[in-house]
Design goal:
Length: 355
């Protein structure tokens, strides 16, 4: 029996489902170009529920492209603190500055113009162009690749850029002129809520099932094809939370490289014994030493395997930045890699009545 795939019916069913089931999200309620752009950058590598509070906080701190273009780097990093992938927000500032120079403080309205801006790739350009400016442009992210791999039984590796470009051309033929914004959001939504990852599609409730060749062939469960990535490099790290009374010692990371210009606790390469750690901090007297739990943090190409301790000293070491709890909360952005140790520090301050 020939498998059925009716493009027109698929689009109608998808949009009808979206009209009924679309989640209420702050960036959808008022889809201005700036709000759409901010949300799309935040949603890269980050879950929707995690983004919501950050989106509101970011818009309050930087309500316009001009305010973002003029933001101080430390302030920007602090507002972004906890979202990770900090190059995203650095590129946002560069993008805002370019918009001030070239587009009178506004985002340009076409896919091709958007694609020329820092930090905006083909997916983000397609999303902003279609949602904010109603241009017929494809917005192909991981959700969309998964949905269409199953719809068309594609065994192309979705991690390859060539596969993404192939699907951009294919999907353009499905996008309706009159509702291109809703179509792209509907595809992302059905990928997030129904055509789920990890070999667990909810085909029994999917409005696209009758036009999904993968479902009809019984192949949807093993798609999409995603070849294994190169194994991450393991780095051993020893994190020293050095405290003096109500202050903690911070260091700013270099301008280039991982977590550039962010603040961290003393961060040593490799793992060390207690005696070696005490020798390395350069304090005359150590008042207390507390071992903290081990932690792991995964970056795109590196894993940090961290051991840590909290060390109380009797006088400030002549290096770094001695930071109060208030400054830690409002001034200095600490990467999420160190969140466990930041919480341990707060507990220690509480026990010592330094809060």
């Amino acid at each position: 029996m020939e498998k059925i795939h009716d493009k027109k019916r698929l689009v109608i069913n998808l949009l009808d489902w979206y009209d009924e089931h679309a989640r209420v999200l702050p960036w959808r309620e008022e889809a201005t170009p700036y709000r759409v752009w901010v949300s799309e950058i935040m949603l890269q590598q980050t879950r929707v529920e995690a983004v919501k509070p950050y989106f509101e906080r970011f818009l309050k701190a930087f309500p316009s492209i001009s305010s973002l273009a003029n933001a101080k780097d430390d302030e920007l990093s602090k507002v972004w603190e906890g979202l990770g992938y900090y190059n995203r927000v650095k590129n946002m500032k560069k993008c805002a500055q370019m918009c001030m120079e070239l587009y009178d403080g506004k985002l340009p309205s076409t896919y091709e113009q958007l694609l020329q801006l820092p930090g905006i790739g083909s997916y983000t350009a397609g999303a902003v162009a279609s949602i904010a400016f109603k241009e017929k442009a494809a917005a192909v992210d991981g959700n969309v690749l998964r949905v269409f791999s199953r719809l068309l039984v594609s065994e192309d590796d979705i991690l390859k850029e060539s596969t993404k470009k192939k699907f951009q051309k294919i999907i353009l033929d499905y996008i309706p002129e009159e509702r291109c914004d809703a179509f792209n959001q509907a595809l992302m939504e059905i990928g997030a809520l129904v055509c789920a990852p990890n070999a667990a599609p909810r085909c029994n409730i999917c409005p696209l099932a009758q036009d999904c060749i993968g479902y009809q062939n019984g192949k949807a469960h093993y798609l999409p094809i995603k070849k294994a990535k190169k194994q991450r490099r393991i780095e051993k790290r020893t994190i020293l939370v050095v405290v003096w009374k109500d202050k903690v010692l911070l260091y700013q990371r270099p301008e280039k490289g991982l977590l550039s210009k962010m603040y961290e606790f003393k961060n040593l390469e490799d793992h060390y014994l207690k005696k070696d750690i005490i020798n390395r901090i350069g304090a005359k007297h150590v008042l207390s030493y507390k071992k903290l739990k081990d932690a792991k943090h995964v970056f795109s190409h590196i894993e940090w395997h961290m051991k840590a301790c909290l060390i109380e000293v009797d006088e400030p070491i002549e290096e770094g930045i001695w930071c109060t709890k208030e400054e830690l909360e409002h001034t200095y952005a600490i990467p999420s890699a160190f969140q466990t140790y930041k919480e341990s520090l707060y507990e220690w301050w509480k026990e010592k009545s330094y809060e």
